[in-house]
Amino acid sequence: MRQIPLIAILFALFFCKSQNDTETEILNQLDLAFNGTPGTYFPQKKSNEIQYNFFLNLEHGYFMTAGNRIHLYGGDEGQWAIVFEKNGYQNRAMRAEIELNYIGDCINYPVERYSGINHISNTNNIVLIDSDEFERIENKKGSGLEIFEHIGEQVKEIKIRDQFIRFNNNYRDYEKTGIKIKSFNGGRKLIGFGDLVRYYNEINPALLYASEDEIKMHIPKKLKKIMTIDKFHYDGTILPSKQNTYKMIARILVSGDTTYWKPVLPFNNHWSYWESGDL
User: Fold this and answer.
1) Are the C-beta atoms of 126 and 213 separated by less than 8 Å?
2) Residue 56 Cα to chain centre, angstroms
């Protein structure tokens, strides 16, 4: 019987332990973000700084969620990064935007300075429809219908980023996708700002996606994309380290093997499963 050299056995044991340790570390970093605690790889906090560590939140009261995805990246030197991508309508800022949350061991954390204080976070926001455009298309006074956060019946096109997109004013098309349109005087219906973003997510989701350059804005360019996950089970009440979704993600990041993505729980990350943007 052929014997396996002792050095080969030791190497296999070490490799296995190293993989398990890295998976545990990834899950620990996810748990820290879930709890809003700055991660291990955040820069050392200074006296004039505030640090924020955000996790994907599909049920945020100020953000009417539309689409969302999870991007996984890995490097030849063992570096790893998870980028949560979410788009929708930000009701307090009156704009449609993409929110990117970065978790990893190689993040170039965004820094914004307000009143002499540096605010360091793991989040980058990309505006899709700015507040000026929403003010332009908002329903005007005198129509007898709701004004706030609803689109006027006369609007023909809407500017998303730097291009004008034809506006569909037929509320029935929205309702076919599961979007509930509010009725006003005489049964007339206007499309809400959040309804608009969700509708585009249903008929043309690529219109709302971040580009690869935008996604990689705060991670090393040399990192390779392992996979993008657009359907998954989401639970905002349980630590990621206790969820099968993130255990699979950690294994994929360490191994680079996408066949470990074998979800057993039903997909529920679609906006229709969650209450959001209701504050």
Assistant:
1) no
2) 6
Q: Which of 232, 244, 227, 242 is nearest to 82 (CA)?
A: 227
Residue 212 CA, chain-centre distance (Å), reads 14
Q: Are 153 and 143 in contact (CB under 8 A)?
A: yes
- 274 token code pair: 């969650």
Are 23 and 239 spatial neighbours (Cβ–Cβ below 8 Å)? no
- Cα–Cα distance between 25 and 252 in angstroms, integer? 14
- Quick check: 2 pLDDT over 90? no
Q: At which residue do the structure tokens 């809003």 appear?
A: 36
* Sheet with 117-121: strands ordered across: 49-52, 117-121, 111-114
pTM for the whole structure: 0.91
145 alpha carbon, distance to own chain's centre: 33
Could you tell me the two tokens for 33?
Answer: 């973000």
Residues 6+ positions from 254 with CB-CB distance below 8 Å: 19, 22, 23, 26, 80
- pLDDT of 188 reads 83
Domain ranges across the chain:
6-128+210-273, 131-205
Is pLDDT above 60 for 208?
A: yes
Average pLDDT of every residue of the chain: 92
Q: Residue 160 belongs to what H/E stretch?
A: strand 157-160
